Amino acid sequence: MKFESTLIIAIILLAVVFAVLEFMHIIVIKWGRTMIETEPNDWKWGVFYFNPNDPRIVVPKRIEWLGWTLNFAQPASIIITGGVFVLIMLWMIYIPSK
After folding, report:
1. Rounded to whole angstroms, how far apart are CA atoms 14 and 60?
2. Which end of the chain is more exposed for a tag (fewer CB within 10 A), N or C?
């Protein structure tokens, strides 16, 4: 299997993982089980959410219409971020020159 097709499969799998996490988050919020209020101290440099007491991996940003972010206090978010960087670096290294 070529590298390009492997990369496409990896990107699709990553998108599916994010979709499942988003679906789980919507269900949890709908049932109201983990509605944890965010304090200003939970935001490092005003951008990175870091709250070890919050079990969620994907959380809404401070300004909700801007989307979602990761809770960097959870190990899974570090793995997700690292995986994205590795995929980008591999893609940049193995781009066929034309």
Report:
1. 19
2. C
Q: What pLDDT digit, counting tens, does each position of 34-82 carry?
A: 444 556 678 787 778 888 888 888 888 776 667 888 888 888 888 988 9
User: What are the boundaries of each domain within the chain?
Assistant: 3-93
H helices present in the chain, as ranges? 3-31, 75-93
How big is the chain by its Cα radius of gyration, in Å? 16
User: Please, what sign has the CA dihedral across residues 16, 24, 67, 70?
Assistant: negative
Sequence-distant (≥ 6) Cβ neighbours of residue 35 within 8 angstroms: 29
Rounded mean pLDDT of 10-38?
67
pLDDT more than 70, % of the chain: 74
Q: What is the pTM of this model?
A: 0.53
Largest CA distance in the chain: 53
Residue 71's beta-bridge partner residues? 49
